[in-house]
Fold this sequence. Notes:
The structure is a single chain. The protein contains six helices and seven strands. By secondary structure, the protein is of the alpha+beta class. Helix 2 (16-26) packs across helix 4 (49-62), helix 3 crosses helix 4 (49-62) and helix 5 (87-96) crosses helix 6. The longest helix has 22 residues, at 169-190. The radius of gyration is 20 Å and the shape is elongated. It starts with a helix and ends with a helix.
Amino acid sequence: xxxxxxxxxxxxxxxxxxxxxxxxxxxxxxxxxxxxxxxxxxxxxxxxxxxxxxxxxxxxxxxxxxxxxxxxxxxxxxxxxxxxxxxxxxxxxxxxxxxxxxxxxxxxxxxxxxxxxxxxxxxxxxxxxxxxxxxxxxxxxxxxxxxxxxxxxxxxxxxxxxxxxxxxxxxxxxxxxxxxxxxxxxxxxxxx
Length: 192
């Protein structure tokens, strides 16, 4: 039995195999996400809402109804990189060298637009030496993704990019590679 099996059994009284069998027997293969959660809430009220969501997502993945990285709002991916420099140094690189990660210049103030490297978007939130949130749209996408770049840690810094609302699994993999490269550039510029 795995740690994941131990965790679900401890929290819910059943392991993943049992949950998959119960949901199959109930007809969950024909239901959408909300329908599965509704069934779990009605028939297993002792299971917390967090576990109801987790069981539903695990079921959807196991039965091919949901891909890895798929959420209700599209696909998402997270990328992170450790940097030896402090957060203040990394923040300076982010804000003074946006061409390294956004493909072009931009002033980091909410509402400002940027474009470069086949992507465009708008700065939404700026919290100095903490995080920046922005839209990020690749040429050809109907709607933009949302990106949050966060700085975590003391001494050294972890730079984390979370990209949400991607249109499909292929875009998720493309975004993963783009942000991996971007964070490598930021780390190199910051002296790591």
